[in-house]
């Protein structure tokens, strides 16, 4: 079958791109699970845009660049902040019910933002509202949606991406779909880590498929750890939104001592890397496995109205957050790195585009500012579609970085292949919040041996594990190479940023 647009992924990036692309041709969405299984629906805090009376795109740009610790691409970030308001209007037109107060849009506050600029929907259910609004529109439109369809490989014709090879994950049958533009919107790789806020489907598929196809992959060492995920025995990891700290919640230890002011003058609203590392330090010093987030200063009705999902989830597990502090610890949350693109979403492979979390236009640099990720997906997904309308689109207009490096070929080994928990434990312990040369080196050796031990994948779990191991290798190798600390990447043996490392690490598979 042939389509004008093949869009792999059904989170906000894929759906939004598809809804725009349907105006210009036939569209096929491919998704390995059901359409609403994605990270988007778990996003709580919201989407950042400088729409408040005292705000401006310039202030938003300044905060984005400061959080990114020297690696933000300023052109991309300027586009992000200046196109934000228009993209919010698009989402509202597509039916996203943003919250308002007294007739004006309600704006929350999150870490490292100098202004209240976070739009939200249903209190803390922003992602769920976006996903449902966009997926119901997509279902009602002319878009063809193939669920349970895993993208395995990109197929080339005359040196350009021309089709995708897929596996039906229920019948195990293969099919090839041809497309004029192939768009990867396949999300992040949070499942690399034992403790993660991400959905089960976040297995780095977009990065892995693109890397195997020869596209450049950048900034893989920069994994953002969210400081506050719920930590209750036997209860699945659940995000406690940064917006809770934005409403004045304090981080305290088991003795009720508030510790963040001694780490940063912005205290609980410092950037995520600082808060996550502070909690890590407190836990290492005390031997505890959790600290506490206290929002009991707010009237109970305000807490349950502003954070209905968090309130209900905790209550279902026996915790009334209006009366007791919430036990929390950090969790892997977001990959700043991904498939390298220009500001039009073009990858270094002709005909292949990427947007959303699997892409990297360096708009977040080394550390993403809270609630800039949903914004990035819509701003750059739109630019992908715009680009496909131009005559000479998608034909390799991104400079290939001359210094891109390839992973070494994994050598033959005796090691048995890992299972997902084993991989996640290794990444959490050796490529986690605080890193060091020896554990990183051991991790790269183990990951390389696992890569060669894995049998060729023939079903969805096999593909997911192979993709995770490849992303784990890219992350660990980059983290070992980067002998400095910058943004979310912290090396105990190199605790300061180093000017010679104010540059990106780029991988390319030339095999
Ligand atoms: C949160 O609500 O804390 C997550 C939002 C984000 O990751 O930007």
What's the mean pLDDT score? 95
Please give the alpha-carbon distance between the first and last residues.
Answer: 29 Å
The percent of residues in helical segments reads: 25-40%
Number of helices: 14
Which class best fits the helix and strand makeup? alpha/beta
Fold and architecture overview:
By secondary structure, this protein is α/β, with parallel strands linked by helices. It has helices at 12-21, 57-67, 74-82, 84-93, 126-140, 205-212, 242-246, 272-286, 300-306, 308-316, 373-388, 420-430, 437-453, 460-481; strands spanning 2-8, 27-30, 47-48, 100-101, 104-105, 107-108, 118-119, 144-146, 149-157, 160-168, 174-184, 217-218, 223-230, 250-252, 291-294, 326-335, 338-340, 352-354, 359-360, 506-507. Among the domains are: 228-331, Flavocytochrome C3, Chain A, domain 1, CATH 3.90.700; 404-506, Fumarate reductase/succinate dehydrogenase flavoprotein-like, C-terminal domain (Methane Monooxygenase Hydroxylase, Chain G, domain 1). The strands form 5 sheets. Strands 1, 2, 8, 9, 10, 11 and 18 form a 7-stranded mixed β-sheet that branches. Strands 19-17-12-20 form a 4-stranded mixed β-sheet, with helices on one face. It has a 4-stranded antiparallel β-sheet with strand order 13-16-15-14, covered by helices on one side.
Key phrases:
single chain; 511 residues; alpha/beta; Methane Monooxygenase Hydroxylase, Chain G, domain 1; 4-stranded mixed sheet; 14 helices; 32% helix; 18% strand
């Amino acid at each position: 079958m042939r389509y004008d647009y093949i869009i792999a992924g059904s989170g906000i990036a894929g759906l939004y791109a598809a809804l725009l692309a349907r105006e210009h041709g036939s569209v096929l969405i491919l998704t390995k699970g059901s359409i609403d299984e994605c990270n988007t629906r778990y996003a709580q805090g919201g989407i950042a845009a400088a729409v408040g009376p005292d705000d401006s795109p310039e202030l938003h740009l300044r905060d984005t660049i400061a959080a990114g610790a020297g690696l933000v691409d300023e052109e991309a970030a300027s586009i992000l902040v200046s196109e934000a308001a228009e993209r919010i209007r698009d989402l509202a037109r597509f039916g996203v019910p943003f919250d308002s107060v007294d007739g004006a849009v309600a704006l929350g506050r999150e870490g490292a933002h100098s202004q209240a600029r976070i739009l939200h929907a249903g209190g803390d259910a922003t992602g769920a509202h976006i996903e449902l609004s966009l997926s119901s529109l997509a279902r009602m439109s002319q878009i063809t949606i193939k669920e349970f369809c895993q993208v395995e490989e990109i197929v080339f014709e005359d040196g350009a991406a021309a089709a995708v090879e897929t596996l039906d994950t229920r019948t195990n049958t293969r099919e090839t779909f041809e497309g004029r533009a192939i768009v990867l919107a396949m999300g992040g790789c949070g499942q690399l880590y034992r403790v993660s806020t991400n959905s089960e489907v976040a297995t780095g598929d977009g990065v892995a498929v693109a890397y195997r196809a020869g596209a450049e992959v950048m900034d893989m060492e920069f994994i953002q750890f969210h400081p506050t995920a719920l930590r209750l025995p036997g209860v699945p990891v659940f995000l406690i939104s940064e917006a809770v700290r934005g409403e004045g919640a304090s981080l305290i230890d088991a003795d009720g001592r508030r510790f963040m002011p001694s780490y940063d003058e912005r205290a609980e609203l410092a950037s995520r890397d600082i808060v996550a590392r502070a909690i890590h330090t407190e836990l290492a010093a005390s031997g505890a496995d959790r600290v506490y987030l206290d929002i009991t200063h707010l009237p109970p009705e305000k807490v349950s109205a502003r954070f209905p999902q968090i309130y209900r989830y905790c209550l279902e597990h026996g915790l009334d957050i209006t009366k007791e502090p919430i036990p929390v610890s950090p969790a892997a949350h977001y990959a700043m790195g991904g498939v390298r693109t220009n500001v039009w979403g073009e990858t270094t492979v002709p005909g292949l585009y990427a947007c959303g979390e699997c892409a990297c236009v360096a708009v977040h640099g080394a550390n993403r500012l809270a609630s800039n990720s949903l914004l990035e997906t819509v701003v750059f997904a739109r630019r992908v579609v715009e680009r496909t309308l131009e005559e000479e689109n998608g034909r390799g207009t991104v400079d290939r970085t001359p210094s891109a490096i390839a992973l070494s070929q994994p050598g033959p080994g005796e090691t048995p292949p890992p299972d997902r928990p084993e991989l996640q434990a290794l990444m959490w312990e050796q490529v986690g919040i605080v890193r060091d040369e020896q554990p990183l080196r051991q991790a790269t050796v183990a990951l390389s041996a696992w890569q060669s031990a894995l049998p060729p994948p023939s079903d969805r779990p096999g593909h997911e594990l192979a993709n995770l191991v490849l992303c784990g290798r890219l992350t660990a190798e980059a983290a070992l190479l980067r002998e400095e600390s910058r943004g979310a990447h912290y090396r105990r043996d190199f605790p300061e940023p180093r000017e010679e490392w104010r540059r990106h690490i780029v991988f390319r598979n030339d095999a």
